[in-house]
Structure formats: structure tokens, C-alpha cells
Amino acid sequence: MKHIRAYCMITTVFALTVGCQTVTNKVDNQRFSRHDQIYYFQHRLIPTWVHQSNGKFFSDLKSGIPSQLLNAATEIVDKEFASSLILKPFPEREAYALVFQRPAEITECYFSVIQKAKEGYRYYTLEKSIDFTGEGIKSVVGSWSKDGQHENLGPRTYDDLDSFLEDVL
């Protein structure tokens, strides 16, 4: 049984401490699929850190992939997933891209972008999708707001990082 600490400003287990109350959810790996674990990491944990760390998570990215991110990826998903993470800085755009292992299922991310903005921070995802219409759809762009709301920004016909960056930055 693993312990995932979430839904607080910053989780102390991953070394981001700002003095918040931690709510512990026990996650049984037998009960949750690898897909569910990846989804949680990409769509819940990272946006929480991006939006609720008062800029600390973004600042930590300047030194490369923070150890707390690698530790979280290992604990929540597995070591293989964590070791595949790549961080690409785009200082001229005040942004970082996280490159994930190629998604196995829909809603898993190819990439995510964390960007500093005037009003705070932005978190975008490029998620694997299904081409229901026969129009060459490969992915969907999404974003996560500070209040935890997911916005679907629509289907895309690409699944490469350069097209994603051009689209969201």
C-alpha cells in the first residue's frame, strides 16, 4: 500500500513544504490500474503543485527535474515511468515542457507545459485521443486552472512536441 499525499498546497512527503494540512489517501496498487496512476500524476498532482505552490514548483524546475517530482512519479506510478521523464526548458517563453513516455491509453499525456504568466501559472497537456471522425485526430489539448478545473481545448492532428509548443506558447 502506498500513501499519496494530495489536495493541499504542497505535500511535505515530496519536500515542498509551505505549512499546509495534508490529507492522506491510501492507494492500493491492486485496485488502481497503471493508467489511473499515470492519470493522477499528470492530471491531479502536477497541476496542484503548479498552481498552489506560490511559484516554488516552477522555480525548482530551473535546476532540472526536482527530486520530489521523480520521487512522486516513482511512488505513484513506478520507477520505469519516473526514469522516462524529460524536462525541456524554454526560458525565452518562461516555460518548461515535461516529456512523458509514449501514452498507452487515451487521456494519458504525451507532454505537459508549465508556463509562468502575469496572472500566475498555466498548465497545458497534450493527451492521447481517438480519431472518431476519421479526420486524423491524434490528440487533445487540455489545461488545468488554479481551482482544479479541466478545460478541453479541442482535438489536434499532431502528437509532437514542436507542434504542441507552437500551439500553446
Overall pLDDT level: 85
Write the element-wise H/E pattern from the N-terminal end onward: EEHHHHEEEEEEH
What is the strand arrangement across the widest sheet?
Answer: 3-4-5-6-7-8
Number of strands: 8
Please identify the structural class as seen in this structure: alpha+beta
Strand content: 25-35%
Sequence stretches where pLDDT stays below 50 over 5 or more residues: 1-27
Q: Round the Cα radius of gyration to an integer and report it.
A: 16 Å
Number of helices: 5
- How widely separated are the two ends? 39 Å
User: Based on CA inertia axes, which overall geometry fits?
Assistant: globular
Number of domains: 1
Main beta-sheet annotation: 6 strands, antiparallel
Helix content: 25-40%
Explain what this protein looks like in three dimensions.
The protein is an alpha+beta fold and 169 residues long. The chain has one domain (2-168). It has five helices and eight strands. The strands form two sheets. A six-stranded antiparallel sheet has the order 3-4-5-6-7-8. It has a two-stranded antiparallel sheet with strand order 1-2. A hairpin with a 4-residue loop joins strand 3 (86-90) and strand 4 (95-99). The termini are far apart.
